[in-house]
Amino acid sequence: MSDTAQQNRPEPSGDASSGSGERLRKPSAARRGGGDPGSRGRTTIADGVVEKIAGLAAREVIGVHAMGSGFSRTLGAVRDRVPGSGGGRSNVTRGVKAEVGEVQTALDIEIVVDYGVSISDVARDVRENVVSAVERMTGLEVVEVNIAVSDVKLPDEEEEEPEPRLQ
């Protein structure tokens, strides 16, 4: 091997000036850009993103029958039937309101619970599931999750679906 080829190889370890002459090293990415490439720039998360994550996490909890108040669910059911209204999207975030800052978020969640379940246990489980999902997926610190139980679904109650005006 020639002396020239040896000079262009990076030194495996130790002082760059040791050995037979100075050896060249490739500059690392951290030196060129002034830090970890993953920390360059800013990430913003919209309120709606956090609301969707929280809504799905809350619905996963056993004992949660529905999200939102009776009025908002009725209004949402009507909106779902109107073509082009984007009703399917609102279904996920129904009953969830998020306030998102740069590093923290706070959530208000309105739920309907099934009859016979412990409301305090369901509220605790919703809080734990929502905090875990939002913090894991967004990196935001969840400072509070306020839960309002707006109704209890009785076993013999029918779903609140408005009658369609057109058949």
Give the percentage of residues in beta strands: 15-25%
The tally of beta strands, per DSSP, is 4
- Main sheet specs: 4 strands, mixed
Q: Can you count the helices?
A: 6
Order of helices and strands: HHHEHHEEHE
Question: Between the first and last Cα atoms, what is the distance in angstroms?
Answer: 87 Å
Shape: elongated
Label the structural class. alpha+beta
Query: Low-confidence runs (pLDDT<50, min 5 residues)?
Result: 1-18
Any idea what the radius of gyration is? Answer: 28 Å
Mean pLDDT: 79
Overall helicity: 25-40%
What is the compact description of this entry?
The protein is built from 6 helices and 4 strands. A hairpin with a 3-residue loop joins strand 2 and strand 3.
Topology diagram in text:
Blueprint: H1 3-8, H2 29-33, H3 47-59, E1 64-67, H4 70-81, H5 87-93, E2 96-100, E3 104-114, H6 119-138, E4 141-153
Parallel strand pairs: 3-4
Antiparallel strand pairs: 1-3, 2-3
Helix pairs in contact: 3-6, 4-5
Provide an overview of this structure:
The chain has 167 residues and is an alpha+beta fold. 38% of the residues lie in helices and 20% in strands. It is built from six helices and four strands. The protein starts with a helix and ends in a 14-residue tail after the last strand. The relative contact order is 0.16. Residues 1-18 have low confidence and may be disordered.
